[in-house]
Amino acid sequence: MSKKEKTILTVVGGGKDAAKGRSEAERIERQTALWRNRHGVLTVISGRMVGQVYHLDKDTMTVGRDANCDISFPEEAISREHVRLSQDEDRHVFITDCKSTNGTFINGSQISHHLLRDGDKIQIGDAIIFKFAYQDSREEALQYREHEQSIRDPLTGIFTKIYFLSRLREEFAYVTRQGKPLSIFIADIDHLRHVNNAFGQPAGNMVLRRLSEIMSRGLREEDVFARYGAAEFITLLRGQDQDRAFETADRIRRTVQDASFVHKDYTIPITISCGASTLHDGNFEDPREMLNEAERFLFQAKRKGRNRTASAIKL
């Protein structure tokens, strides 16, 4: 091979190497950009609020029993400020135990400070277990949609019966330990079948959606509101005793009675009947007994003429 040919090969080879180097640098730059667009996510996989997703969207966040924590759980087994989560400039997430009473565990091992990795399971005290993951905006949106679809009624957008019963079991266990009141009430639409027969299924669907909106506006943020049956809705009222639960249910009943339900220029009169029950002083062994009492009072409200509220304090 001549000296000239060797020179040409060297130049060509150098050009290929340079292009390859630029391509590799661009690939690394893209991966770095993607990584920096990711952020940490905690998903509750055991304990209260199973399925709830928390996005670590601050440089520093706290988890604990105190209401001022970024992520708060009113559990006695959790310290007021149990752990602190922090992120560095490269979006790595670190967890630090804040000298908690019952400790913090990663994948079963107790830690004081730890760099979180994708898939780590975080247990705080003996009450809550999270799963940690890194997500970008697309993964986050997909997880949010999947989570919402799993717990939301497709017609009304409120919680499903399955989700409600799960929350009721958790709240029942918690307030039983704490000795605090917990109430529920079931609302049933009076004569919804007549609406469907007279105006068609679309009118019935309109009533269900409109009623969901009206009832939601009359509840607190911490209340849990769900569809319980074809024409039934159920609400969990945290911290409300018998008197307040009756007042809440009956206030909503009156609001529904006065509301307008319009379908194709027809105004459809809609009322609901409500039955309420309250857990206090260990009067129920389990959530099923509490539900049975609410259903029994709902039946009494129906039997006494509908469009009324019944509970242990008023039939």
List the helices and strands and how they pair.
Elements (H helix, E strand, L loop, with lengths): L2 H34 L2 E8 L6 E3 L4 E5 L6 E2 L10 E5 L5 E5 L6 E3 L2 E3 L1 E3 L5 E4 L3 E8 L1 H15 L9 H18 L3 E8 L2 H8 L1 H17 L6 E4 L4 E7 L3 H17 L3 E2 L2 E2 L4 E8 L7 H17 L5 E2 L5
Parallel strand pairs: 3-4, 17-18
Antiparallel strand pairs: 1-2, 1-11, 3-5, 5-6, 6-9, 7-8, 7-10, 10-11, 12-14, 12-17, 13-14, 15-16
Helix pairs in contact: 4-5
Task: Provide a concise account of the structure shown.
By secondary structure, the protein is of the alpha+beta class. It has seven helices and 18 strands.
Low-confidence stretches: 2-12, 31-35
Number of helices: 7
Number of strands: 18
Derived structural class: alpha+beta
**Mean pLDDT, all residues:** 87
Q: What name does the CATH topology of the largest domain carry? A: Alpha-Beta Plaits
Number of domains: 2
Q: Within the largest sheet, what's the order of strands?
A: 2-1-11-10-7-8
Q: Mind telling me the C-alpha Rg?
A: 28 Å
- What is the top-level CATH class of the largest domain? Alpha Beta
Main sheet properties: 6 strands, antiparallel
Characterization of this structure:
The chain has helices at 3-36, 137-151, 161-178, 192-199, 201-217, 242-258, 287-303; strands spanning 39-46, 53-55, 60-64, 71-72, 83-87, 93-97, 104-106, 109-111, 113-115, 121-124, 128-135, 182-189, 224-227, 232-238, 262-263, 266-267, 272-279, 309-310. Helix content is 40%, strand content 26%. The protein folds into 2 domains: 38-139, Tumour Suppressor Smad4; 152-310, Reverse transcriptase/Diguanylate cyclase domain (Alpha-Beta Plaits, 2-Layer Sandwich), CATH 3.30.70. The protein has a 6-stranded antiparallel beta sheet with strand order 2-1-11-10-7-8. A 5-stranded mixed beta sheet has the order 4-3-5-6-9, with no helix packed on it. The chain has 315 residues and is of the alpha+beta class. The radius of gyration is 28 Å and the shape is globular.
